[in-house]
Amino acid sequence: MNDTPSPNLESVSLNNVPITLTGRVTEFSCPSCPGVKLEIGLLVERAEVCCCPNCKGFVIDSPTCRAQINELRAQYRGPIDQPLPLNPRELETRLNCPACGDPMDVHPYYGPGAVVIDSCTHCKIVWFNQGEFDRIIRAPGVRKRYVSPEPSANPTAVETNSTNLQPQAGNDSLGTTVLELLLSILTP
Questions:
Q1: What is the value of pTM for the model shown?
Q2: DSSP structural state of residue 63
Q3: Which residues contact 182 (CB under 8 A, 6 or more apart)?
Q4: Which of 20, 54, 26 is nearest to 39 (CA)?
């Protein structure tokens, strides 16, 4: 990994979902922009992602992705987007995983937002093009936060009274960071 700061970009906003770039450039290339290296960023100042400074797409590990979508949908109080139909042409695009280089699976996100996502089941990561994550957050539908009092317990739905997209105190660690996950795939 190269710790060279990004010369032109310190933060990006994927519509209403802010990503603050740390200035740390990774060794991983953007699956959409040949030759452009991904940069470490913090999604809503708490979840680590690798973001492309060019196309504004980002990769996030699957467990963190689910947790962030649930939390951000529960906290979101802005306008609700009208559902858009799924674009079937997006299902034809095949991107390679930035970690292992294999073609990622292309499929509809099986939740709100009518978004086509790219995921690598081997590496357990998800790639979002610019605006896709935001469409999921702003989509109509249930807005509940899922919490588990014990790691082994089944999640239960609870209402949330949060009114913005700020991180909750004490919820800074969501497990393995996406960079650690990507690097572990390269290390035998």
A1: 0.72
A2: H
A3: 26, 28, 50, 59, 98, 99, 123, 125
A4: 26
